[in-house]
Amino acid sequence: MTKDKDKEERTINLLDLIPVRKIEWEKKEEGLVELLKPKFKHPFLKKHLLPYVKRPYFRIKLDSVGSFIWGLCNGNLSVKEIAKSLKAEFGDKVEPLYDRLALFLQSLEKNRFIEYK
Q1: What is d(CA 39, CA 60) in angstroms, rounded to the nearest whole number?
Q2: pTM across the whole model
Q3: Where exactly are the structural domains of the chain?
């Protein structure tokens, strides 16, 4: 097998991936979502410092588009299906659709808020 064919087989299309949430979150009364990122990940810090901290989470507030996307990252829909739902819900407000969606999902993955299956 040549290197070119080997690269082609390893190419992953973002649109075919299925995002899955990895962190806790809350839905506020306006329908917006707040992600709850733990302040401490190390088991020692969790055990010894967390009981003394008033707010154990960083709260990341998402706008209406981000909240809509977060709600669809349930492990059942592919990125392509999320894009279709996003276009149906918000129309031209989210253009350029695929670029914005890809950047948002990359940011979520980079911060370990989602993973792909």
Answers
A1: 12
A2: 0.81
A3: 19-116
